Amino acid sequence: MMWKRTVNAALSRATGFELRRAGAVGRRRPPGPGDRLLEAPAFILSTVRSGSTLLRVLLDSHSQIHSPPELHLRDLAVQVKSPYAQRSLAEIALDATRLEYLLWDRVLHRELQDSGKRLLVNKTPNDVFIADRIRACWPDARFVFLLRHPAEIARSRRDVRPQDTAEQNAAMVLRYGEALEQARSAYDGLTIRYEDLATQTPAVAQRLCTFLEVGWEPQMLDYGRFDHGRYRPGLGDWKDKIKSGRVQPPAPLPAPEDVPPALRGLCEAWGYLPRAGGAPAPVSSLELPHAS
């Protein structure tokens, strides 16, 4: 009956169970721990143009951490093309979403295995829009939240997207920034700032190592010694600054009056501007607790 299939499909997606006639025997089962090959992966959640490629290559220079170029999990999808396939998958406790999670897990696990290291840190800015799905896929996933002054994000993005208007640019920064702030509110994790990463690199790197439960390695600071894959659009930053192989100081922060009005709220939320009627949040991520 069509109504039963519709109800069962919805129930299966939401709970992993379905309606059956009393006495019917089925193979429904909740997914077991063997469904995931990757253990405790970490994800850098950030906006675009916020220094996430620098953070990636610093982490990837650690002997135990593999941080690959952007993998765009959000755009990897599975399609179940027929009702017969849906029915068959339901019998073995799978559906399109669970298949998609298996695909994500296999791709990242393959990357980690090929690297010969033991911990994977994934970095793709649009992961910020699927934080809930990442945690559903890997309940033991850990998050590193990377902040940067929103006006500086807009300036950096303008340099690589001159065809966009100032309004389009600010809207894009705000879209990513609001998703990042929503993830910070929903999940524990480590919050760091690009400005600290670029000026207090050893201290921030040591804090990252503590959070990821690996030992601190000074070689992380000399990322130019190691192969991190190609620098090209779609894989991360590709500008001369990241290609130099050296951590370089950030540009000076803009004066408060130079911050676009559309980004002022985000600047206040992240502590780059005083909140209306109150004190600013800590400017340095070294003052922030591990849990957001």
Feature tags:
five-stranded parallel sheet; alpha/beta; 11 helices; globular; 292 residues; 41% helix; Rossmann fold; 7% strand
Describe this structure in words.
- The protein has 292 residues and is of the alpha/beta class.
- It has a single domain (41-287), classed as 3-Layer(aba) Sandwich (Rossmann fold), CATH 3.40.50.300.
- Helix content is 41%, strand content 7%.
- The protein contains eleven helices and five strands; from the N terminus they run αβαβααβαβααβαααα.
- It has helices at residues 2-15, 52-60, 83-91, 96-115, 131-137, 150-160, 166-186, 194-199, 201-212, 240-243, 264-269, and strands spanning 42-45, 65-66, 119-123, 142-147, 190-193.
- The protein has a five-stranded parallel beta sheet with strand order 2-3-1-4-5, with helices on both faces.
- Helix 6 crosses helix 7 (166-186).
- The protein is globular, with a radius of gyration of 22 Å.
- The N and C termini lie far apart (48 Å).
- Residues 22-31 have low confidence and may be disordered.
